Amino acid sequence: SQDVIFPTFIASDDASEVADGGETITLKFSENLAAVADDAAEHGQFTVLVHGVANDVTATSVSGSVLSLTV
User: Fold this and answer.
1) pLDDT confidence of residue 13
2) What distance in Å separates the CA atoms of residue 23 and residue 30, rounded to the nearest whole number?
3) Of the candidates 68, 71, 70, which has an alpha carbon nearest to the alpha carbon of residue 16?
């Protein structure tokens, strides 16, 4: 059967955090996510604003239901 329910972001989960120094943002979702390519096309799908200023995503990774973005 096809999964027709989109994963939802769980901000209240302890796995959702911004690491000390702010270079890595970890986002916890309600279900496992598909693999990410970790290339420029993948990075371009995300916008990270710090004090209203856009910061480029330089790396992406997925481990189960956790997505990590590096800026």
Assistant:
1) 96
2) 24
3) 68
Cβ count within 10 A of residue 16: 16
Q: Give the separation between CA 4 and CA 13, rounded to whole angstroms.
A: 23
Give me 66's structure tokens. 């956790």
- Tell me how far apart the alpha carbons of residues 27 and 16 are, in angstroms, rounded to a whole number: 5
How far apart CA 28 and CA 14 sit, in angstroms, is: 8
pTM: 0.88
What are 15's two structure tokens? 């796995």
State both tokens at 16: 């959702």
Give me 14's structure tokens. Answer: 């302890």
18 vs 68: CA distance, rounded Å:
10
